[in-house]
Design a protein that fits this description.
Elements (H helix, E strand, L loop, with lengths): L2 H14 L8 H49 L1
């Protein structure tokens, strides 16, 4: 086993080839994914709110129609 070569590789990595997460291309990609996630969560909340309101509107319509029907039959 060549320990001298291994030591040189470790020293070279320590000298200037350290991993810097702030300048990594993965950091930009992760930030983009996080922004997309936040946008999708906001859209999800909006869609859930719209669905809830549509259901309430339909229930109100159904009740009014049933009330009108029962008044008509009387």
């Amino acid at each position: 086993m060549d320990t001298q070569n291994t030591d040189q590789n470790i020293a070279g990595a320590d000298a200037g080839e350290r991993f810097c997460p702030a300048s990594s291309p993965w950091t930009a990609k992760l930030l983009g994914i996080a922004a997309e996630r936040d946008q999708l969560l906001a859209e999800k909340v909006d869609l859930q709110d719209r669905l809830l309101r549509q259901r309430a509107e339909f229930d109100n319509f159904r009740r009014r129609a049933e009330l009108q029907r029962s008044e008509y039959l009387q």
